[in-house]
Amino acid sequence: MKVCITARGEGFTAEVDPTFGRAAYFLFIDTDTRALEAVANVPGAHGAGVQAAQTVVEKGATVVITGSVGPNAYQGLAAAGIEMYTGATGTVEQALANFQTGKLTRSGGATGARHGGGRGIQ
Predict the structure, then answer these.
(1) Residue 55 to residues 17, 32, 77, Cα–Cα distance (Å)
(2) Which of these, 4, 10, 45, lies nearest to 24 by C-alpha position?
(3) In 10 A of CB 70, how many CB atoms?
(4) Which among 63, 91, 120, 121 is most buried, taking Cβ atoms within 10 Å?
């Protein structure tokens, strides 16, 4: 299975980024092999959540692990059939372990707020 974890850095020891659309990096991890691909997130002024969701879909992840997901990103990810787990904290390694042991809760809706003032959406 390929999961995407939002992160502030490029490896397993990086901290989980609490926002989806404006995360510094998306770490795509194959849970079987632990192969990791770090992709820098370059959000635009508007529609960051939608752009981020598109990146996740294009990379083939079936699960997103993050702190929070805004409404537009949630809609795009849900439409693509991607499961979202929110409330993740700590390192990427810890978040992955918490996911694999069932300690994260699957999100049933957007958990982040809309951002105004040209900041886009999580």
Answers:
(1) 16, 21, 10
(2) 10
(3) 25
(4) 121
Q: What is the DSSP letter of 103?
A: -
H-only helix segments in the chain:
48-59, 71-79, 92-100
Separation of alpha carbons 19 and 45, rounded Å? 15
Burial of 55 (0-12, 13-18, 19+ CB in 10 A): middle
Q: What angle do CA 107, 69, 118 make, to 5 degrees?
A: 160
- Tokens at residue 122, please? 């999580």
Contact (Cβ atoms closer than 8 angstroms) between residue 95 and residue 7: no
Residue pointed to by tokens 């990791």: 36
Full set of structural domains in the chain with CATH: 2-106 (3.30.420.130)
Over the Cα atoms of the chain, what is R_g? 13
- Residue 120's nearest CA partner among 26, 25, 41, 50 is 50
Q: What is the pTM of this model?
A: 0.88
